[in-house]
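User: Second chain of the day. Same drill as before.
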Amino acid sequence: MQTKIAANAQAMKRWLGKAETTLGNHSDRLNAINIFPVADGDTGTNLYLTVRAAAHAADAVVDSGTATGQSTHAAANPHDVGAVLAQAGQVAMEQARGNSGTLFAVFLAAAAEPLAGHTRISSPLLAAALNRAQIRAWSALSDPVPGTMLSVMEAAARAAAAVDSAHDGDDSNQTLGLALDAAVEAALAAVVRTEDQLDALHAAHVVDAGGVGMLLILDCLRSAVLGEELQSELLDGLHGYDVQDPHIHVGMPRDEGVEVMCTISLSPLDAAMMRQRLDEMGDSVIMSQVGGAADAAGHYRWRVHVHVLDAEPAVALIRSLGEPTEISVSELAVPRDPDPRAATVAAFDAPAIAAETRNPDGHAR
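Assistant: Same format as last time:
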């Protein structure tokens, strides 16, 4: 069995660092097969940028024991696995890109909750974290669909739970290794199944891009904790993933409309109202809390994501309920640059709309 297992905060830092590097290396192929929910070829880029934000946040906590420099973040214990991942998840949520990035941020922030106060991950804690994460990710979407990264999250969680149950909650390193192996194996099987779960993927003869990205993230977790290399053969045979395959999304019909994202503080009632109204306006609605505590007025911070035909009504609705920050609009019909180090968005600056090009770290060029 593995002898280099280290399931502490340093391992979580390694996990997210590995995931950043791996997604950067795979972003082009993930973009190439990104045709669901829209064929905009940016899943690899969005996951890379979101994981990059999380990785840098984890680095800051583990290396210095302080928060990321943003005044809204409290200092985190650099030895508390849950605290490190919570900080990383919060930053990822606030900087999340696209459907895939937002769902990963939700996953990470939720996974941190059962780990709070622990300096080491065990098989029971892994099972609890993965289960909390997949449930929260499914619930963040107004209209969740099987055959996506949600199914991959769920399969991994179920596999880890099965190992934990079979070993009666044993918290040894050996059982943790078995749980991680099972989670990745189940995630791979779930990715393969995506092709037959969604008509668009079946017709194009490809697997889901977000699902593959999530599989890579989980294999990075396994690698970081077990002290092993990434499984080089993991993606062999996945349809559409050979480096010689074309960028399938390029030949797909272009989707009309835009993607609107922001962070906003809302009461639970206003959050429910916003979700309902956005559901009426568009689709791919994702709303999830950023952090767990309410402010003095009883408002919670939310990350909001929606696809709509016209940005103006959606932005007007958002502004009518609160004061959004980090509000951005991206054209769905415009192919993104496949280079993960380049991302173009349009930023809403009241009262006018201004176009702005940003680097992955969020600073204007």
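DSSP finds eleven helices and six strands in the chain.

User: Great, on to the next one.
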